[in-house]
Design brief:
The chain is mostly helical. 81% of the residues lie in helices and 0% in strands.
Length: 190
Amino acid sequence: MDKNNWSIFTITSIFFIVQIVIMIALDYKDRHDYLRSVAGTTCFWIGYTFLEVKYHLKMNTYVRILIVLTIFFDALIGSYFDLYASSFIFDKVLHFFGSYAFSLFSYILVMQIQTTPIDRPVKFILVLCLGLSIGVSYEILEFITDSISHPVPPSQPSLLDTDIDLIGDLIGASLAGFHAISRKFINKEF
């Protein structure tokens, strides 16, 4: 097993075990609404990892750890410790951090199919657009979830919450854009 596959296997195995423990704890607390969310994000990451290995995609270990931490913080701090309901700040910080992580993640995936180099300003705009698109998609998903299942408390209690979440997404995606252009972040070997 080469170094890259070893890091994929190690990080994903630890992530999966921790997420299972969190899901069991959420079930014990009868928080099935959060349990479904944690199961969904866990399945997303396991599915991506399967596709990464199957199609020989490459992902920077730094970005892989950022994504795993984003999903872990969502599960443990947001769901298990219920900071989504008890803290106004936690959701905003996670939007910033998650937007940074997912902007870099999507940028690396896009650059693997890009055949020609792109200029730094275009690279920044690409990363920014990817991050904002993911953030907006997440807000739309929150709206749909609130409309269908009427959780208590709702994911989007007000338009102000949505706007501040999107500002966090903008700041995180901008930081990711600066990260992508400020160093040789991508060299086709990641």
